[in-house]
Amino acid sequence: MIVHVTWSHSYETCGAHDAEVVNITKQAFDTPSEKGVTVHSVYANRPEHTFFMILEADTFEQIDDFFDPLLETGTGEVTPVIVPPFAQ
User: Fold this and answer.
1) Residue range 37-82, pLDDT digits in tens
2) Which residues contact 78 (CB under 8 A, 6 or more apart)?
């Protein structure tokens, strides 16, 4: 299962300068394979406080588990996607 994630937070809740939030986020992205998740790409639009990700896992539960430590850092839209035949 491949998913596109749009993850965002507000200016007021931005953790970019909060060492604890930075550490939680770094740890989550350093260890996705422990939860059965492959991170294919992550891009950020810092002025909009939004991240865009392509993740892959066998189950949605693994994706959910990956985001568990991040739930207090923002909100996300997780959309299942496919690789279209013309792009393979």
Assistant:
1) 999 999 999 999 999 999 999 999 999 999 999 999 999 999 999 9
2) 3, 4, 5, 60, 63
Q: Is 9 helix (H, G, I), strand (E, B) or coil?
A: coil
**pLDDT one-digit tens code per residue, 5-26:** 999 999 999 999 999 999 999 9
* Whole-number Å distance between alpha carbons of 36 and 28: 12
**68-84 burial, b if ≥16 CB within 10 A, otherwise e?**
eebeebbebeeeeeeee
The amino acid present at 46, given as its one-letter code, is R
pTM of the model: 0.92
State the Cα–Cα distance between residues 82 and 67, nearest whole angstrom.
21
Angle at 8 between CA 76 and CA 39, to 5 degrees: 65
